């Protein structure tokens, strides 16, 4: 079950226009409406109230006029705000300071802090798989790098949209760019790190990118689509477990590569990606809600 960010304000739904109560010109909230809003919104209809709030979010002059209206029409509110400000300043001074970020602000916009440990773990798994491939002098065993490559990004993908792994997840969901756009952007950050590492490891182990790249993208897209239903970290874990049990384990036990990683299977993987892309587009608003349990 998900709680929608847009439930209280229909004008925030994509494509739903806000009711027209703002004057044009000068395209600002009328003073009388702003005064009533400053004193609690008495006499303002629900549609007009939503329109005022929508306008205030993007209009600095009207927010300044609202502050003046509150000071003029509701001195008790100003007293309460002053008290809250003073108490909050005291609590802020007493609370410990947050540690300085070790990564640039621009990087933080593309990846949550919880993603970095998972990317580091992915690199360790790839290094271990590459090491085992390099020490296998017989050449009879299938390449572990090739077997791991399709699901390698899933460890990082699980962290791009998870309330458990992102301490500010609710704030991110409520941000203007929340939803599939943010999920895809963070997923791209994962792929930008993982795919070059896979390419280097695969070339060193003799596993051509032509064999694993399309399955890798298919698993990544599949995790995003399934994550809309059960949560992204659960989806990534389920797909990784299924691949491990159904492909990696039998390939290692019987010393033969899976047909799913042969070049002949690539058109089927590409078709699967196309189907998943359509599903993602049709359910693109699924990532704008906060799951009640994650």
How would you explain this protein's 3D organization?
The protein is mostly helical and about 290 residues long. The protein folds into two domains: about 1-95, no CATH class; about 105-290, no CATH class. The protein contains 13 helices and two strands, in the order βαααααααααααααβ. It has helices at about 30-40, 45-60, 60-75, 75-95, 105-110, 115-135, 145-150, 155, 170-175, 180-205, 210-230, 230-255, 265-280; strands at about 1-5, 290. Helix 1 (about 30-40) crosses helix 3 (about 60-75) and helix 6 (about 115-135) runs parallel beside helix 10 (about 180-205). The chain is elongated, with a radius of gyration of 26 Å. The N and C termini lie close together (about 10 Å).
Task: Offer a quick outline of the entry.
The chain has 294 residues and is mostly helical. Helices cover 62% and strands 2% of the residues.
**Roughly what is the average pLDDT, rounded to an integer?**
79
The shape, in one word, is elongated
Q: Treating each run of at least 4 consecutive H or I residues as one helix, how many helices?
A: 13
Secondary structure class reads mainly alpha
What's the alpha carbon Rg, rounded to whole Å? Answer: 26 Å
Number of domains: 2
> Percentage of helical residues?
55-70%
Low-confidence stretches: 1-20
Portion in beta strands = under 5%
Number of β-strand runs: 2
- Termini separation comes to 10 Å
Main sheet record: 2 strands, antiparallel
Order of helices and strands: EHHHHHHHHHHHHHE
Biggest sheet, spatial arrangement of strands: 1-2
């Amino acid at each position: 079950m998900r709680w929608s960010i847009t439930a209280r304000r229909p004008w925030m739904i994509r494509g739903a226009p806000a009711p027209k109560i703002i004057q044009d010109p000068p395209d600002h909230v009328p003073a009388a409406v702003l005064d009533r809003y400053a004193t609690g919104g008495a006499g303002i209809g629900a549609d007009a109230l939503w329109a005022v709030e929508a306008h205030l979010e993007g209009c600095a002059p009207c927010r300044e006029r609202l502050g003046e209206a509150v000071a003029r029409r509701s001195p008790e509110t100003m007293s309460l705000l002053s008290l809250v400000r003073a108490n909050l300043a005291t609590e802020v001074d007493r609370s410990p300071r947050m540690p300085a970020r070790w990564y640039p602000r621009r990087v933080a916009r593309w990846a949550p802090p919880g993603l970095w440990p998972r990317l580091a773990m992915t690199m360790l798994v790839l290094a271990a798989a590459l090491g085992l491939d390099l020490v296998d002098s017989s050449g009879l065993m299938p390449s572990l790098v090739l077997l791991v490559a399709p699901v390698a990004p899933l460890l990082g993908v699980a962290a791009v949209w998870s309330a458990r792994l992102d301490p500010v997840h609710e704030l991110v969901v409520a941000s203007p760019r929340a939803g599939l756009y943010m999920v895809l952007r963070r997923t791209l950050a994962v792929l930008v790190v993982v795919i070059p590492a896979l390419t280097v490891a695969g070339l060193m182990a003799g596993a051509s990118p032509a064999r694993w790249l399309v399955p890798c993208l298919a698993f990544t897209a599949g995790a995003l689509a399934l994550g809309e239903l059960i949560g992204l970290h659960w989806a990534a874990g389920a797909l990784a477990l299924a691949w491990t049990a159904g492909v990696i384990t039998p390939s290692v036990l019987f010393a033969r590569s899976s047909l799913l990683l042969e070049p002949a299977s690539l058109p089927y993987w590409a078709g699967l990606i196309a189907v998943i892309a359509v599903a993602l587009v049709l359910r693109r608003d699924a990532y704008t809600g906060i799951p009640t349990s994650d």
